[in-house]
Write a structure and sequence with these properties.
8-stranded mixed beta sheet; alpha/beta; 6-stranded mixed beta sheet; Urease, subunit C, domain 1
């Protein structure tokens, strides 16, 4: 175990290589390009479906970009279907390997930054603004980037990205597959959530937003005004001066977008590390009845019981966060394990862009910190999909759903496992190599 963990530490220290409700937009049908029919045989399959056991000596048949059959070539377990392989299928045999759902990175900026040092390759939000809830990440995403390609080749087949920038309310995130020519080809869900920055990252030059107490005061005011819009839409139609007042609120597109949060149509994701900031976010949740998610969460373990009681999930990232600033001074590698034992739904993330490809190592670090292996695997797959309601077949393997999965020749959360195959949206990629 110690050797395994030290190997992970060495890898993590390697330098990064930078080279009505809102409509849920389904992924459009893949046009023009014929999707091949293929099968994976011999692997131990973790479907991540609730309560499902791994399938030994499994078979996955893929046709038209979707899982046509998920089971075994013969009846090895009473609950497993028998999968016949079509005669026209290309068969990839991986006896003894491990097949898992495609992983999901939820805190990086894939598709929004190509080269760190070149600002023209960034897509960001102007910093001199407190409420950019109407800004949509989907409009700034470029799917074909080296970072996205590297992540996919490491088994990350889906990502959730929020708009870049230092605004308090930074905008709406989008979820997409790590394959396709443009985001319309890769779309999973849009919008996903509204994101809020707390702390130094939200100090945008406005006097009140320069302090944490001011940031929460502004956020409360914004939510209160957004709630007035929602109440006017759901109650008696206002007249006279009241109608004019509501119309002035509706003239602000940021407030209209934020009203989806107070209507509980979209979750609000508060990006914060400090325990006191997380406690303030919990008070916001209680005051406005919003669906809250904590992202970052270096000190979230200190409030594990309160988060569990409020049913607030945590996107922990990076898992290996160390005390390197005042906001993270009580960070610990055991955070994921502490949260999980308390009953918090935990997602794991790299919180990086160029190194989103290392997502499985974050799960490995969480295991080293005491998180059970199966909970760590769920933390980079099913739990992310559940937190963001990404729909069936994302973060899990299900017959009839999109074929997103990865095959490893050993434990995918350790140095023993090497990636051997990736299927992103049903597009086979044997022996994927970083480049």
């Amino acid at each position: 175990m110690e050797k395994w963990f030290h190997g992970l530490v060495f890898l993590a220290l390697l330098p990064a290589t930078a080279s009505a409700a809102p409509p849920l937009v389904p992924a459009p049908a893949q046009a023009a390009v014929a999707q091949p029919t293929f099968a994976i045989t011999g692997a131990k399959i973790y479907t991540l479906q609730p309560g499902a056991s791994p399938i030994e000596d499994g078979v996955v048949v893929v046709a038209g970009g979707r899982i046509a059959c998920l089971g075994a070539r013969r009846e090895t377990q009473s609950s497993v279907r028998n999968c016949a392989i079509p005669p026209d299928a290309t068969v990839y045999a991986y006896p003894g390997a491990v097949l898992i759902p495609g992983m999901i990175e939820a805190l990086g900026h894939l598709g929004q930054i190509e080269i760190d040092a070149e600002e023209t390759s960034h897509d960001g939000v102007a910093a001199k603004e407190s409420n950019c809830a109407h800004v949509q990440a989907i409009d700034g995403v470029q799917v074909v980037t080296r970072a996205t390609d590297a992540a996919r080749r490491a088994g990350v087949t889906a990502v959730v990205v929020r708009p870049l920038g230092g605004a308090l309310v930074v905008g709406r995130s989008v979820a997409f597959h790590t394959t396709g020519e443009v985001i319309d080809d890769a779309l999973i869900r849009n919008p996903v959530a509204v994101h809020v920055n707390i702390g130094d990252q939200a100090k945008v030059g406005e006097a009140l937003v320069g302090s944490r107490s001011g940031q929460f005061a502004v956020l409360r005011d914004l939510l209160d005004r957004a709630r007035r819009i929602a109440q006017a839409d759901s109650g008696p139609k206002p007249t006279g001066a009241a109608a004019e007042s509501v119309q002035r609120l509706r003239d602000d597109p940021g407030l209209v977008a934020l009203s989806d949060v107070v209507r509980a149509r979209l979750p609000i994701v508060v990006h914060a590390h400090r325990a006191d900031d997380i406690a303030s976010a919990l008070r916001i949740r209680a005051e406005f009845g919003v669906s809250l998610v904590i992202a970052g969460g270096a000190e979230s373990h200190l409030l594990a019981d309160a988060l569990a009681k409020a049913h607030v999930p945590v996107l922990l990232g990076p898992v290996r966060q160390r005390p390197d600033e005042f906001a993270t001074q009580r960070a610990t590698l055991a955070a994921a394990a502490i949260l999980q034992r308390a009953g918090v739904l935990v997602g794991l993330a790299t919180a990086e862009t160029h190194n989103a490809r290392n997502l499985r190592w974050e799960a490995g670090f969480a295991v080293a910190g005491g998180l059970p292996w199966d909970a760590a695997l769920a933390g980079v797959t099913r739990n992310i999909a559940q937190i963001f309601a990404l729909g069936p077949g994302v973060g899990t393997l299900e017959q009839g759903q999109t074929a997103d999965f990865a095959v490893f020749d050993g434990d995918p959360l350790s140095l023993e496992g090497h990636i051997r195959f990736v299927s992103a949206s049903g597009r086979p990629e044997p022996n994927p190599a970083q480049r």
